[in-house]
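Lecture 7, part B: from sequences to assemblies.

Below are the input chains for today's worked example.
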Amino acid sequence: MPADEKKKSAETTKPTITDEDLFHIAIPIFDDALFNVIQEIVSDVHISEKKLRMQSAAIQAEAVALTSAQPSTPSSANPSSATKPTAPPIATAPPAGQFNTTAATYDNGKVTLKGNPLKLQRENLCPCCKLPRLMFPIVGTGSRVPEEVNREYCKLHPFIKKPGHDIYGNPFPVDTGKTTKKEREALRKIERQEKDNTPGSADTGTADAESTAGDPGVKKLMAGGKGATYVPWQTCPSCKRSLLITKFAQHLEKCLGIGGRMSRTTAAARLSGLNGSVAGSTQGSRVGTPTPSQANGKRDAEPDSDKEDGPPKKKARKEKKEKKEKDKVTIKLFNKNGKADASKRLPKSSALNDKDKSRTDRESSQKRDRDGSGIDDAPAKKLKVKKDANSALPSITASAQ
Amino acid sequence: MADVATATPKSLTSAPLASPKLVRNKSTLPASTGGCINASFGCNHIEEFHKAGENSFKTLRERYEEIIQVIRDKHPIVLQTCLNTKNVAITVLRPTFLCVQCPFIYSEEARKSHLDVKKHSFCCKVVNSRNGTLYCSNCEDYVYDPLFETIRLDNGRKRKFDEFSEDSRSVPPNSTHVPCRAIGLRGLYNMGNTCFMSAVIQSLLHNPLVKSFFLTDGHKTGELCEHDNCLSCSLDEIFTEFFSLEKTEGYGAVTLLMNSWKTAEAQNSELAGYKQQDAHEYMQFLINALHVTNGSLTSDCHCFFHETFYGCLRSDVICDKCNNKTTTDDPFLDLSLDLRTSQLKKKLNGENSKGAANESSMRLEECLKYYTSKEKLAAVDYTCKKCATQGVSTKQFTLLQLPPVLSIHLKRFSHLKDKSSKVTTPVKFPLVLDMMPYTTLYHSPETFTETSSSTTNGKTNGTTSDSSTGYSALLSQPREHWSPKLLSYDLATVIVHKGEMNSGHYVNYSREGKQWFLFDDSKVVLATEAEVLRAEAYILTYVVSDVGKWVAEDEGDGDD
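Predicted structure of the full complex, as structure tokens:
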């Protein structure tokens, strides 16, 4: 770096240079270095901003051309319409003619600028969705309420900086397991209120209450992630059970039978009881695993709520299984989805607001469908079990769904 | 590198994943005819120049290309020497301006008078960062013409695949619109002690090279993949999810976890199981697994991961008695730098007297310097093959080949005989790291002049001898004239370990473009450069600054 070189040369010839000289040299060097740093930062912003404006001007001019020319070129129809051609469309010819906007001129597919786009082009348009970009974050540091709240903006918003919230303005997930019942109810109340305030649009999401309550328009613009209480459920790819994502690793260890303390055999034993429902697809090695005598001690090591579905004794279970396998399966799954776990998980799920819940359900059922498509008959049975649960225990299912 | 991968046709294949919301976003504006339209010229003056004559425009373009090459190759001192208003050559620190229409360099003040007198409209600007943007005197502003910007961003190299530009125009109308928000900024849920995994996955997700590998269908998933419990497929799934859906909440990387455990268990690795793990260990494991699932198992593997992450470390041992040199080259996946010994050594040797002022903190460059410095081996440790005696010898590590993605692991967990502890020494690391001083090339250039055909360019078999920027050309210059840009690396990711030796939490700082983000499991927040540089780093990932250079010198097996 030249700055260093100057300094170095100053050092090497030090005997002839007084401190005062050095002082006079050092300050301009520092000034220049600072100037360059600032220049570089400004230049970077200038480059990105001006390029965006240039492109926006072009997009706008093209849009004007397309709108004016649309009647004559119906082929450039909105791709969202159902009439998407089966054969891949060839790039349609650009509309002919000359069109003007404030910043640019469109002339037979080519766009030229009229002047400096930073002066002439007022807003940035997204090159992908062609919608205007928000220029400021809607909440948090440096936020501004957009001039036209009801306009549709590009979904890529400026990132939000707000304590306790992510870059999309969604509050951090909170561990509902640790909150008290009162707190959960309060949360639920807030979320319900919010929901009432936002009519329609299912995906405006749960914006946080305090900051946006005053401005429904801003809320509408929010990214629409999951609420604070949202902790997703996940279907285990191995055994197809549905469980909280935060407990997944713990479950998977047992499910795969990894890590000491005979967990593999324990898991195998437990899962063998499920053979009827999880039709062999995941068992693989486990089916053939010779099950040595299951001492009760092993099961004691297991903390989970498997007391009911775990095999009390191998022999007894086998007999039962032969006798009334179907019943057993139903009871088992019923226990899993309903009673046994409901007692544990009910508080968490009840803390979800209605909207989230319905979405969770929808999603989880979608996931199940997707996952289940690979295996033979598991999904059908699961559905059946669900129905059973509904009829048998209306009180629980009502709060869980 | 492009900031955002916009339309990735790949995501279309995952039909069930595609959100139904995509369609609704289709704007009130009619669909574009295809591609992203842009203004044809940077300003109306360039347009006029273009209209005025094909030839003069061609000259302008060629001249600009030349200037960009000069900016790329010449020493800064050349570029910073310019004419001032009195037409006297001076050397300045501030930006200088290279005129595109005449062969002079002007200072900022002289630029104005020059343009007024000569009626030259364009000046190519040069600043210390050497960004080479074009200044239009009529606009009195910098202009970013699509054509000139392409030249500038390609660093004056000729584009190889220009002929595909026609094709690229027909891609957008034939592909599904990827939501604008799907730019991969999502968290990963902690599934129970899996923060080590989240931190490592995020570093891969925000690695521009890995990203382009997966988003260009680098790994064939589904039925095309013949590996069981394939980790590449699992990672591909996450890439698809992150870069094609509009979701903002976290993601549960269940298949990756399951396949990691299954693979780890098959290797009898400690990594499988529900407990806290070492992120460094997991990173090595994961990259190795990715390499296995994408390449061959032969020794000369040229898979993407091998070429991207693996470098080569040379160790020279010189016997003090007979001066016999034994050289061994070993591949490395990351550099594990010692934090404690170097401190001790500094005290013991007293070689670094100026560092004495601040003993408690270290600089990354110091760690690297120590790593590649000469080290005395005790007599018991080494037996010379030539003189067949046990004697004192000198050992030195140097970097023979540098990978495009350089991972640096700081040994924060020390296991001594009596106790294990966490080293909390703060390490200062730079945003841009020059790796040249640690290379074999730098330490013993003579080995390269001798065998110029050997692996010299840091990546693979050197085809550099004929290249103008080749190392043979470089070696002809004195070492102090080597440009610092030759082997500069940009900081891409910092993995931080918080907490104690046996329990703690991993977070990840990663960069998208110029913006830093903090990934803390499912939480994603903005981070500042200062915050990143203050972090107590555990693993640092540096990505080579000028990828184009590597591609240009290694045209044979470009991945995309």
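Note for the exam: Confidence is low (pLDDT under 50) at residues 1-34, 351-358, 450-470, 551-560 of chain B. Keep this in mind when comparing with the next example.
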